[in-house]
Amino acid sequence: MDPMAAIRQTFFQECDEQLAELESGLIRIDEGDRDPETVNAVFRAVHSIKGGASAFGFDDLVEFVHVFETTLDLLRSNRIEATQQVAACFLRASDVLADLVSGAREGSDVNPDKVAPAKAELQSLCEGAGSEGDAASEADFVDLAFEPVAISLDSIFGDFEESEQKPHRYVINFKPRPALYAKGNEALLLLRELGELGALRVTCNTDDTPFLDELDPEGAYFSWTAELETKEDARADIQAVFEFVEFDCDLSIKEEDDPPPGSVIESMEEPAVYEEEPKLPIASNDEQPALAVPEATPQPQPQASAGPRKTEPSSPAPQPTIRVDLERVDRLINLVGELVINQAVLSQRVSEAGLSRASSVMIALDELEQLTRDIQDSVMAIRAQPVKPIFQRMSRVVREVAAITKKSVRLITDGESTEVDKTVVERLTDPLTHMIRNAVDHGIESAEQRIAVGKPEEGTLKLSAMHRSGRVVIEVSDDGAGINRQRVRQIAVSKNLISPDALLTDEEIDNLIFAPGFSTTETASAISGRGVGMDVVKRAVQALGGRISIASRPGLGSTFSLSLPLTLAVLDGMVVTIGDQTFVVPLTAIVETMQPKKESVHLIGSGTRLIRSRDAFIPLVDVGAVLHNRPSLADPTAQVALLAESESGGRCALLVDEIQGQRQVVIKSLEANYGRVFGIAAGTILGDGRVALIIDVDGIINSLRADSDAVESLHAAE
Amino acid sequence: MSDISNETNGLFTTLSLPRTLDLRAAAPLAADFGRFRGRPLVIDASEVDKIGAQCAQVLVSAQQTWARDGVALTLSNPSSAFTGALEILGIPTRKIGE
Predict the structure, then answer these.
(1) Is the pLDDT of residue A151 over 80?
(2) A271 to chain B: which residues are within 8 Å by CB?
(3) Which chain A positions have a beta carbon within 8 Å of B22's beta carbon?
(4) CB B57 to CB A222 under 8 A?
(5) Is the pLDDT of residue B66 over 50?
């Protein structure tokens, strides 16, 4: 890859992280968090984006982010109060910022009608805080009148107690590198911030400035010596001033032990000359500093900013991370998959050789199997990501749809740290977006309707994630009106999706909303009514190996549940024989196994067989016949029944000829390598090297809907 | 493309600095000085609302260059924002132009 393109790609990756951090912080502020560190984190996120955007020359982005940053700075300095209205304004600005970042990434323009109002809102906040709003830079550069802070002489000539409080005097040597400016930082602002800490005298060394012929206008030639006198220990504050630029400058901070009495010199016209302090360069990512620095004798200064930063006790130290190309991770996963298969082959070969389970070879193989599984789990964990980023993205969807529909909606998230495979996370965005839009647009009522039925004006949408039975379950719940089944049924009839006299259960009516082209919206809007929606959701979820189900109660709301595999790479399965073929049934779908008895099997209707299990009748499915593997067997008692349950709660007993055992298998996509086959979810390679197909339990159970009436009638007859 | 305006009479050229001399203005500013090399120059800083370190570097470099060339360079009507910024930067105004 072109090095510049790689840097650019990294910048946008970091932008995504910073945008997530920004939104997360703003949501916390919106919820009442007043921790200064939260505000700092938000400011840092915006500041970081600005730096990179400046370097790449994304002018529109820089212009907006500059206003945003300055407004946040006013929040940081308590000149703007963090009210809910202010937080909402910042959240809208963060949405626009995300659009501008996307625009910069794709090389497309962002609609000015979206940017201008957000910018105006920010500027109005600036003006309200007594700052100029014009790119807020006015506030940065105007009002720069230097006002030294008078140091009380009482500390020197006062009584003993007061003389304990000697002023602290620091000498700060600061030499920027070009990267500091290239990232959008401004030395003047840093010096101004220093001036806010106490009485400051600044000397600029301009000796390195070349003549115009040799001058790089974007170079860094000036260096500064700043003397700062403060009443309190200000080392941490000084380090904080340079926090964002520490890798892009040479910096030394030295405290003088014996500050001379008296106040600082106020005139800048003839600054005193200081002896060069030994410089303590900050560790830098740059291989070479852009400018040669004078030879220096480093002195160990444990408290210098070169050392580790003091972290707030409330904020845990961030875990060190590295970026790894996803292709490398996937290659590793594939290799581990092959390792698992080879380990299974080895186990089988040794077993076929007739060695006893207690032999040392078999014991070592068991250990190898455990180790292989641990390696596989660890490799899978590399690809696992928390669902937090996608949940955060949904908060924007809620904001936008609520604004369009003029509804008041609060999103509550739960289980954001739940981890799932990266691919699953990425492919969840579209279906979740559709579901959230539907929940706000169709589920939650207008404020007037809610008040009329005694509900709070503000609707609540809950987005949660949890691990359950080796899968991840994501739920979208609203406290709205629930599904209007009568209306859904009418529409389904009018669209010829069902016949007018069809007898449908509540669950079946609810599921009609997944039918292609189904819409309860009369007119197409920006949100819905285009005939694209929940059917797309269902297909996307199924493509991920997941299921979607609905639980709706009229007047109380609806819950849409997505059940997804944690990973698309492996599963624990039960290896079974059907005819002369070996199949794998996902273990998560199997409730129990049973040997059918003659008296518990009932034949009803058009040849449908049911099996009684704990006072319930369950359809008996001969998998071999369903998959056209062999004709249906007349005597189910000669077979084994696997009592299976689908994600939506449907149950059936799968008849197989024989159970071979349980095994973890590596999933190989059948669709990617061949095509979709009814009843088959994927393929795998067994220990003996043969290919086995993985049964799609949910697909089979869902195909049995027609038998539900027969089951109902049998229950009624009981 | 710089938005620096200039007017020339028989004796000297006046460069009117723009309101904003931030990081992005440094290159255009240097280019404009390059165009007037060898001429007596008056820098009119009355309209400057903000100036950052990199543009200050350009101005200091220009002053040094004009001095080496033996040509007059004068700073005229600096705005309070201009002098305030130089004060923060610790740069005496004489380093920009007498």
Answers:
(1) no
(2) 90, 92
(3) 137, 141, 186
(4) yes
(5) yes
Q: How far is A51 from chain B (nearest CA, A)?
A: 12
Question: Is the CB of A206 less than 8 angstroms away from the CB of B60?
Answer: yes
> How far is C-alpha A552 from the geometric centre of its chain's CA atoms?
28
Q: In which band, very low, low, confident or very high, does the pLDDT at A15 lie, cut at 50, 70 and 90?
A: confident
Whether A222 and chain B come into contact, CB under 8 Å, resolves to yes
What single string gives the DSSP state of each residue in A4-49? HHHHHHHHHHHHHHHHHHHHHHHHHHHTT---HHHHHHHHHHHHHH
Q: What is the Cα–Cα distance from A106 to A101, expressed in whole angstroms?
A: 9
User: pLDDT band at A606, cuts 50/70/90?
Assistant: low
**Average pLDDT of B86-91?**
91
B51 in A contact zone (CB under 8 Å): yes
pLDDT at A649: 63
Q: Which residue has the tokens 């600095």?
A: B17
A667: closest CA among A336, A415, A428, A410? A336
Q: A56: distance to nearest CA of chain B, Å?
A: 12
Using CB atoms, which residue from B54, B64, B91 is nearest to A181?
B54
Smallest Cβ–Cβ distance between B88 and the set A146, A210, A269 belongs to A146
SS3 B12: coil
Interface contact A146, partner B, CB < 8 A: yes
Cross-chain Cβ contact B49/A138 below 8 Å: yes
Whose structure tokens read 């809620």?
Answer: A398
* pLDDT band for position A280 (cuts 50, 70, 90): very low
Any CB–CB contact under 8 A between B35 and chain A? no
Looking at the complex, report in whole angstroms how far the Cα of residue B47 sits from the nearest Cα belonging to chain A: 12
- Which among A258, A208, A259, A252 is positioned nearest to A226, based on CA atoms? A252
- Specify whether the CB–CB gap between A77 and A70 falls below 8 A: no
Contact A212 B30 (CB under 8 A): yes
Interatomic CA distance for residues A311 and A101, integer angstroms: 30
- CB atoms closer than 10 angstroms to residue A620: 22
- Determine whether the interchain pair B22/A138 forms a contact, defined as Cβ–Cβ distance below 8 Å: no
Q: Which helix (H) or strand (E) holds A177?
A: none
Total residue count of chain A as it appears in this document: 718
Average pLDDT, chain A: 77
Model pLDDT, residue A517: 67
Has residue A639 got a pLDDT over 80?
yes
**How close does chain A come to B67, measured CA to CA in Å?**
10
Instruction: Specify the pLDDT at position A521.
Output: 54
What was the pLDDT predicted at A294? 30
Q: Summarize pLDDT for A299-350 with one digit per residue, the tens.
A: 333 333 333 333 333 344 455 777 777 788 878 887 887 787 788 788 878 8
- Token couple for A309: 């930063």
List, for residues B11-60, the tens digit of each pLDDT value: 678 889 998 898 888 999 999 999 888 889 899 999 898 899 999 999 99
What's the gap between Cα A626 and its chain centre?
Answer: 41
Express each pLDDT in A396-435 by its tens digit. Answer: 889 888 988 889 999 999 998 888 888 888 888 888 988 9
Q: Which residues of B touch A143 (CB under 8 A)?
A: 84
Token reading at A237: 């504050």
Closest CB from A137, A204, A220 relative to B91: A204
Give the nearest partner residue to A204 out of B30, B65, B89, using CB atoms. Answer: B89
Q: Provide the b/e sequence for A546-581 (b: ≥16 CB within 10 Å).
A: bbbbbbbeeeebbbbbbbbbbbbbbbebbbbebbeb
Per-residue pLDDT averaged across A676-705, rounded? 82
| Nearest beta carbon to residue A140 from set B50, B80, B90 | B50
